[in-house]
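Standup notes
- DV: blocked on the single-chain target, sequence here:
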Amino acid sequence: MEKTVICFGEVLWDCLPKGLYLGGAPVNVAFHVQQNRNFTGFPISAVGNDFLGGEVIRRLQSFGIPTRGIHLSEDRLTGAVIVDIDSSGNAQYRFLDDVAWDAISYDEDCLPDSPGVEAIVFGTLAFRCAGNESMLAQLLARYPGARKVCDINLRKPFDDLENARRLCQKADLVKLNHDELAGMVGESSATNARGIEIQIQTLHQQMPEKDLCVTAGASGAGLFRVSEDKWFWEDAVPVTVRDTVGAGDCFLATLLVSLAEGFSSQDALRKACRMGEFVASQDGAMPHKC
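- DV (later): unblocked, structure below
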């Protein structure tokens, strides 16, 4: 049976110095899920009834990604974010306000059948407006057997830690980067495996029933599995970074697919790291060579 990963949240255009790239963390995850045989990435979001909104739909359809979960807004523009890249390839983001994905809606009849839904991914950024949370609640209730995944994206000024903690309570797995982990536990960012493991232990005490996954750029990534009561770590393989946009989203998609396919926690983490590194070596979040 084909498996579906529903991805709820923002769809937007990343305005990079080198051009416009389709993005938004949930849509990035859907794209990378879609690259795997027998898996479908199913985005649920909203675009404006404008040129860029039409191009979102056209582009997703060209990738073979279902678009029936993308709501067409008549009174809000398609989202965009200005992305500034520093000399190391790291990104800073400036989001447009009051855009289509701030008011996501969907038709129940367009949703995938329950037996094939493997996971539901939702990012914290989509809840900068309160209305989206009621839509997510309905979605989670519809698929009680799916793995619930909270992707923490703390982007100033949308970096409310209490909001992030509240959303984590809806999840089975929480994914975040090492800076976000430090913020969640109230400490300075750790840059080595041992320091990150200690901070994950602190977060685990706050969320004892959640699997926890952290990415740490050039250091690597780690995964704590509650079912195994074990911490796994994978060192990074050096690459020449073009930009880091979407690398974490590719990592998450690969991790979810690999776990669903029955790979061990360590092997799934390894596969996710290699794919995230590849995306970091390319321009934009959805390189066509994936």
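- Follow-up: The two ends are 23 Å apart (CA to CA).
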